[in-house]
Amino acid sequence: MAGQARPSFDFFLVLDFEATCDDHREIFPMEIIEFPVILLNSRTLQTEDIFHFYVQPTVNPILTDFCTKLTGIAQEQVSRQPKLPEVMKSFDDWLEKHDLLSSSHNFCFVTCGDWDLKTALPNQCRHLRIAVPPYFRKWVNIKKAFRRIYKLPKLPRSMPYMLDRLGMALEGRHHSGIDDAKNITKIMVELLKLDPGIKETFFY
Ligand code: AMP
Ligand code: MG
Ligand code: MG
């Protein structure tokens, strides 16, 4: 807005949830089963830490074969894990540990698409009757940033498409949350090199 200082972020938190799902069948609520977040320093472009938990689903505690094939997450990786409220508490503690909840450092999430923070987390929190912490309400949709920087007529269709366009290989397994988050981080680092001004822009 004219005359108003725009925010600039010291850190980006690259997040990519995986959730319960099935082929040709809608699951509601889709429950988060993997919760990875990468702490990227916007100045040094280095990863400073990684928060990573598998999460036990409770509405549909048994993963479908489709879900395991898609995400690579096996039943035993989620069965004895903490449930979402506990993981959210650990995440809050992790933010606190990195001094991200005080006013001295500001941050913004980065996701590939809007599903993670616009749909998945709010829907599951509504179902659990727990509040969504306010810091989850703003994020950079990396597809929108990519479209703006490359002046594309429409949004890039996928993470592999963006990697390909940047001449970078997809590392690890697509639809593994932690591998997706690492690949999205690589894209974000390239976009920050092309346009450091992205630091000062966020997209709802
Ligand atoms: P992604 O970050 O693209 O790996 O997707 C996040 C979540 O969306 C997955 O854990 C699934 O719950 C769901 N999802 C992604 N792709 C598909 C698909 N082809 N069919 C059904 N669900 C999907
Ligand atoms: Mg994703
Ligand atoms: Mg993913």
By oligomeric state, this entry counts as single chain
Q: What is the chain-wise order of helices and strands? A: EEEEHHHEHEHHH
| N→C terminal distance | 15 Å
Q: Give the names of the bound compounds.
A: adenosine monophosphate, magnesium ion
The average pLDDT is 93
CATH topology-level name: Nucleotidyltransferase, domain 5
CATH class membership? Alpha Beta
Kindly state the percentage of residues in helix. Answer: 25-40%
Tell me the count of domains: 1
Protein structure class:
alpha/beta
CATH architecture: 2-Layer Sandwich
Our estimate of the beta-strand percent is 15-25%
Largest sheet: 6 strands, mixed
From the spread of the alpha carbons, the general shape counts as globular
Number of helical elements = 7
> If you compute it from the alpha carbons, what radius of gyration comes out, rounded to the nearest whole angstrom?
17 Å
Number of strands: 6
Low-confidence stretches: 1-6
CATH superfamily membership: Ribonuclease H-like superfamily/Ribonuclease H
At a glance:
By secondary structure, the protein is of the alpha/beta class. It has helices at 65-71, 75-78, 84-97, 115-128, 142-150, 159-165, 177-194; strands at residues 11-15, 18-19, 32-41, 47-54, 107-111, 139-141. Helix 5 runs parallel beside helix 7 (177-194).
